[in-house]
């Protein structure tokens, strides 16, 4: 794999403030004990398997290399992250190290004085291995407040075996071709698309991607900067989504299906070949692998970009995704906390991270370990994309993002409309 395969900034134009994706657990020990030793708390979102083991090994190696420093790990289920972390931040009992993602949420945390500026603490080796664009995904007003671990563009994962069983040839490149694939899969008695609408954001991803196809890059930039959603593309995206939902492409019971928890989740349906497709970010191969019967990668798993939609202003090939990483609390012991961030960004640990999570590492030197065909397809499309925007709920911040997610789920449930989504966006933005 090309060393320079990850080179784009996952943000829309000038909207470079990046968001915190929330995690959770008990609070921070915040620094030095009476005997001079230092203890920190570390929250991440891998509760089982290779991902959990990766962080245990990495922390143990850091502690061995740094006598007197102890890191207490808390692994939190992904769907509980946002709420628990927000509660901890509000109470002044935040962990020293917590997970972060791109968008407006981190900017809010920075504005509240709760995240550490690590700009001058990023070592030369990390800066050489991680593209500036990826580092700046955690930038707020020219300062860096987090360390990226993975680059996670989104798209549609699919089962090659189920496509073949239904007579679907190739992969859809347009929304009409996706509709034809849905029809063939339904005709073969296969649920075409799994979606974990119980968790809201997986269903909202469908609106996000229809918006990337309907809205120009300028319209996305403008909305991110002004929090005004009066461009006609936002309504167009909702109407296109409504038209697609009306074809009934999703698994039975999708409104009560979770995204990543167990065999009955949307990822689990793909892992056990109970559904043919899922729209998700580049973390999905690892999640799916953890839910297969043998807990190994799904051999026939493939990936293709979200299809093009006629009539939209979005540039063909534009993508959406995120950057996962970690930040230090403003109250954390700076020297030890930033040392840990630099430590886990070394090639050895980033390579192990990529293999454990079946994902694309932010450290370019570690990319050679990526062998999964779906991830290699993602990297190819990512490198060719004219621009990549972060997830819209991340880009717009917690209040507007939550309103968007709820509006999208209401549309899925037949309890809302495209107009309702736009109204919800504007109402949430007006409340600040």
From TrEMBL:
For the keyword Signal, the answer is yes
User: Which InterPro entries does UniProt cross-reference here?
Assistant: Bact_solute-bd_prot1, SBP
- Keywords of this protein's UniProt record, alphabetized? Signal
Question: Residue span of the signal peptide, if any?
Answer: 1-19
Q: Is Plastid set as a keyword in this record?
A: no
PANTHER family, sorted = ARABINOSE-BINDING PROTEIN-RELATED, BLR3389 PROTEIN
Q: What is this protein called?
A: Sugar ABC transporter substrate-binding protein
């Amino acid at each position: 794999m090309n060393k320079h395969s990850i080179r784009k900034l996952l943000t829309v134009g000038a909207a470079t403030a990046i968001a915190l994706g929330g995690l959770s657990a008990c609070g921070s020990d915040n620094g030095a004990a009476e005997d001079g030793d230092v203890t920190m708390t570390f929250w991440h979102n891998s509760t089982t398997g290779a991902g959990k083991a990766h962080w245990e090994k990495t922390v143990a190696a850091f502690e061995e290399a740094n006598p007197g420093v102890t890191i207490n790990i808390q692994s939190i289920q992904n769907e509980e992250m946002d709420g628990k972390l927000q509660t901890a931040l509000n109470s002044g009992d935040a962990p020293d190290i917590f997970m972060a993602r791109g968008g407006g949420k981190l900017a809010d945390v920075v504005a509240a004085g709760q995240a550490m500026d690590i700009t001058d603490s990023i070592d030369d080796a990390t800066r050489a291995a991680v593209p500036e664009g990826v580092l700046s995904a955690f930038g707020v007003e020219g300062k860096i407040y987090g360390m990226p671990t993975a680059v996670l563009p989104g798209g549609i994962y699919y089962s090659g075996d189920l496509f073949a069983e239904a007579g679907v040839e190739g992969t859809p490149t347009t929304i009409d071709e996706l509709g034809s694939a849905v029809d063939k899969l339904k005709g073969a008695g296969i649920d075409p698309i799994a979606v974990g609408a119980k968790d809201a954001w997986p269903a909202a991803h469908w609106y996000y991607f229809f918006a990337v196809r309907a809205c120009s890059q300028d319209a996305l930039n403008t909305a991110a900067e002004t929090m005004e959603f009066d461009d006609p593309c936002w309504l167009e995206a909702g109407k296109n989504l409504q038209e697609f939902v009306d074809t009934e492409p999703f698994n039975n019971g999708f409104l009560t299906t979770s995204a990543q928890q167990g065999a009955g989740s949307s990822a689990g349906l793909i892992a056990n070949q109970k559904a043919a497709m899922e729209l998700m970010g580049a973390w999905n191969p690892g999640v799916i692998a953890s839910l297969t019967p043998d807990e190994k990668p799904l051999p026939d798993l493939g990936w293709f970009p979200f299809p093009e939609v006629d009539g939209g202003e979005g540039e063909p090939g534009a993508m959406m995704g995120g950057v996962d990483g970690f930040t230090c609390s403003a109250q954390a012991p700076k020297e030890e906390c930033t040392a840990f961030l630099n430590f886990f960004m070394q090639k050895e640990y980033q390579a192990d991270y990529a293999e454990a999570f079946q994902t694309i590492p932010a450290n370019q030197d570690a990319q050679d370990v990526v062998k999964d065909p779906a991830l290699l397809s993602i990297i190819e499309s990512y490198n060719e994309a004219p621009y990549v925007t972060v997830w819209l709920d991340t880009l717009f911040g917690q209040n507007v993002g939550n309103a968007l997610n709820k509006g999208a789920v209401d549309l899925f449930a037949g309890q809302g409309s495209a107009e309702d989504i736009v109204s919800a966006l504007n109402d949430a933005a007006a409340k600040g």
